[in-house]
Structures are given as C-alpha cells and as structure tokens.
Amino acid sequence: MYRAKLQNVGNLSQVTLLLITLVRPINGVLLYPASTTLQITSSISIPADLNTRTKVFVDMGFQMNYNLPATVSAFYNSTIWADELARRQKRQLDNRLDANLQQENLEDLTHPSDFTAGQLYKGLERMLETYGFHRSCLLRSVCELALHPFAEDHFYGVVTQVITFLLTPSQHEGFSEDEQHYRDKYEKAEQIGFLGGQCHRSYPSCKIDIINLATRLVR
Fold first, then answer.
1. Residue 179: which of 90, 129, 116, 87 has the closest Cα?
2. What is the separation of C-alpha 174 from the centre of its chain, rounded to a whole number of angstroms?
3. Structural domain boundaries of the chain?
4. Is the distance from CB of 147 to CB of 217 less than 8 angstroms?
5. pLDDT tens by residue, 61-111
6. Rounded to two decimals, what is the model's pTM?
7. Which residues contact 35 (CB under 8 A, 6 or more apart)?
8. Where are the alpha helices (H) located in the chain, listed in sequence order?
9. Helix (H) or strand (E) holding 46
10. How far apart are alpha carbons 191 and 193 in whole angstroms?
C-alpha cells in the first residue's frame, strides 16, 4: 500500500497523489457476468381506511438499478448513467416539432411503442382470468364506475383519477382504427352505467363487482 505525504505545496501534492494512484499495481478486480445488475427495491404500504372485510393497501414502490462491472475498462472513465440506459428506447417528439408545437395537433401523435386502449383492455381481461374472474368483469367495472363515479374529494385523488381515466373510454382516444369492436363494446358498458342501468344484469357472467371490493358506496 502506498501513501502520499501531502505537503503545503499547492497542486503539486495532488498531482503526486494522482500519479501514485495510477501506477499502483492492481492485484485483482471483481468482475461479474455481462448484464449483471444490482437492484435495490423498497416500498411503502399504506392500509386504506375502508369499511370492508377485505384489506386494501396502497403500495408505493421505489427501485434503483446499478450495472455491475463486467470488464476492466468499466473502472476507467465511467459515466454517470449506465450504458444500458442509453440503449433503452426513449420517447422523443420528432425534431421537426420543435419549431411548430403551436401549429401541430399533438393529440394525433402516438409513439410506435404506445399501448392502444384495445391492447390494454385485452391485457387486463387476461389478468382478471388468471385471478379467477370472468373477463367480462372489466366491462362491468366500466359500467359500475360510470354508474357510481368516485367522489371528487376522495383522499386518494390521484389514484382514483387514473382509474377513472383508464375505465372511462369516452375520456381518451386510445383505440386504434382496427379496434372498433372493442371501442363499441366498452363505450356501451360506460353508457349503460351512465344512464343508470343495472350492470350486474348486463354482464351476468361476472359475479363480483371488482370496484366494490376496494370502495364503499356512499348515498
């Protein structure tokens, strides 16, 4: 182990210390297989104050990822952001929009990797089936939410706004041109609830009101 004797000679001592560090022999380094990542995950779970038999928690998760060195060169000139992040596909507006943002209709701009509403609903239907629910329970949820919307002053305002946006087809234009069947089906479910229809009779295959599992109706 080498030690540098720092003296009051200005920058000369710092340069000497740097040179000693650079020429110091390296006995070995710890390398990992390529693409090895150190992941640190933490979460906060808050119980929802609901008068139901089922316990409902609101979880907030935090995740940090660090790429571990796979080659010796990773110890030199290391960047602040890992190379893996640079290779990820990023959503960027086309450069031509920089000078024309006021003229362009941004509502018509979609990224090729964006989910359409039909793809999202289809994925949610499959997820419900894996948990033992009928796929029509998503349609019933759209109907029930239109029939009994969340209170505007709800404690979890952000969460309810996101759920309302996702389960209210009339609030978004997320369906593609070839998803007219999905659009008609889900907009009809919303219309049934909005007009005060009976959602459980409109979708008899769904035996459980999923929205009611995490909320309570206030009249």
1. 116
2. 17
3. 114-219
4. no
5. 788 888 888 887 777 765 554 444 444 444 444 444 444 544 444 445 555
6. 0.51
7. 67, 70, 84
8. 11-23, 83-87, 117-130, 137-147, 157-166, 180-194, 199-202, 210-214
9. strand 37-47
10. 5
pLDDT at residue 73, rounded to an integer: 77
User: Apex CA 162: angle with CA 120 and CA 187, to 5°?
Assistant: 55
Token couple for 177: 């041109």
pLDDT attached to residue 87:
45
Residue 93's pLDDT is 43
Mind spelling out the 3-state secondary structure of 153-196? Answer: CCCCHHHHHHHHHHCCHHHCCCCCHHHHHHHHHHHHHHHHHHCC
The answer to whether residues 144 and 137 touch, using CB atoms and an 8 Å cutoff, is no
Which residue carries 């992040």 as its tokens?
Answer: 85
Higher-pLDDT residue of 209, 217: 209
Instruction: At 171, list the tokens.
Output: 């609030």
Most confident of 43-57, 69-83, 106-120: 43-57
135-168 as b/e: b if 16+ CB within 10 A: bbbbbbbbbbbbbbebeeeeeeeeebeebeebbb
